[in-house]
Amino acid sequence: MTSKKKRLVLILVAVAVLVLAALAFLRPRGEGAAPAPAPAGGATTPEAAGARPALTVSVARPQPAELPITLVANGNIAAWQEASVGSESNGLRLADVRVNVGDRVKKGQVLATFSPETVNADVAQARASLAEARAAAADAAGNAARARTLAQTGALSQQQINQYQTTEQTAKARVEAAEAVLAAQQVRGRNTQVLAPDDGVISSRTATVGSVVAAGTELFKLIRQGRLEWRAEVGAAELGRLAVGMSATVTAPGGAEVQGKVRSIAPTVDPQTRNALVYVDIPDVQANAGVKAGMFARGEFLIGKSDALTVPQVAVVPRDGFNTVMVLQDDQRVRLTRVQAGRRIGDRIEVHGEQLTPGSQVVVEGAGFLNDGDLVRVSQAPAAAASTSPAAPAATAAPAAPTAPASPASSASAPAGVPAAAPGR
Predict the structure, then answer these.
(1) Contact 405, 32 (CB under 8 A)
(2) In angstroms, how far is CA 136 from the centroid of its own chain?
(3) Taking Cα atoms as reference points, which of 91, 257, 262 lies closest to residue 188?
(4) Is 206 strand, coil or helix?
(5) To 5 degrees, how large is the angle CA 375–CA 376–CA 377?
(6) CA 292 to mean position of chain CA atoms
(7) Which H or E run contains 254?
(8) pLDDT tens, 5-26?
(9) Angle at which helices 117-149 and 158-190 pack, to 10 degrees?
(10) How many CA atoms lie less than 13 Å away from 369 in the CB half-sphere?
(11) Helix, strand, coil tally for the chain in percent (to 5)
(12) What does the pLDDT look like over 364-401, one tens digit per residue?
């Protein structure tokens, strides 16, 4: 071999040695580390096996609660009793209107007044007629008394005496008639004031100042005692569950809620709709500003209470026409479980499911982004679960990188997670 070839071989060997030395020097620190100990029992968690969690979630356990049992119904809101206030006088001019729609009035309060001039004139005329009748009656009574004293003397015939006595009785009857006319005119005088027949709230007003109205014309409508009622339509099959005095919550179209009580249940059922009316008292119409007569409202009757299992509403996710929840398993994977949603109270909802128990862990935040079998990381595990479940691998631990086989001495002396000394260093 020539010297030129020997020189080339030496150069190649030197380059190879340098490359190997550089690779050994630049080898990652993780190489040569002892493998992490396997979990107790020989089981391998998905994260230790190299799987990555799909999402970090929070979980909660279903909680038992006592929820009300209600019966839902619809119906109209109407006045408990509405009084019609009208004119009792005929042909009088309306002089003053003192109330308006929405005003609360007391029994006997003056609502409107008519012009009294005509009635005062009629009263004066009736008094004059009564005075004239009384004067005529006094004269007739004197003549009859004198005739009776002359009856024994024969100065007057019996026929004349009877005429004087008849005149006396006729004069007395005219006095009574005049008194009745005066009393009638005085009643007309009192009717020039329109009075409230009961306590309540004015719901309608047709009275107009200056108008001349006939007797019986309606001037006002009054909701007696300010009471409204909800006339709920309840099916015949549900009537047996209701009773007088039962509480009810009425919800107006605007969202206002008022509490009432069942006052009475209709004794008959409509043969066409098969519904019966249930009358629920709503007291104090002015205090319930969002509830008005004529509204169509929804309500609930409180029948009783029962035990239920509830979860946060955000944990229930609709999928393919069913309500579902994600139940966390021991291997940190989730199982899709169908449930039946029931009553709601606050931010929680009643659920029914054969595979759902009070000890289950339901995914709350992030349930809508998961599929059946996904691996998850729990951000805040319940304290009870942390105390009873075996130690889980750290959530932030990354899977170990593949390493070259290390010497037995270095593997035995280096603790887990600390890289062993690289050869040649």
Answers:
(1) no
(2) 76
(3) 91
(4) coil
(5) 140
(6) 15
(7) none
(8) 778 888 888 888 888 877 766 6
(9) 160
(10) 11
(11) 25, 35, 40
(12) 888 888 888 888 888 854 433 333 333 333 333 333 33
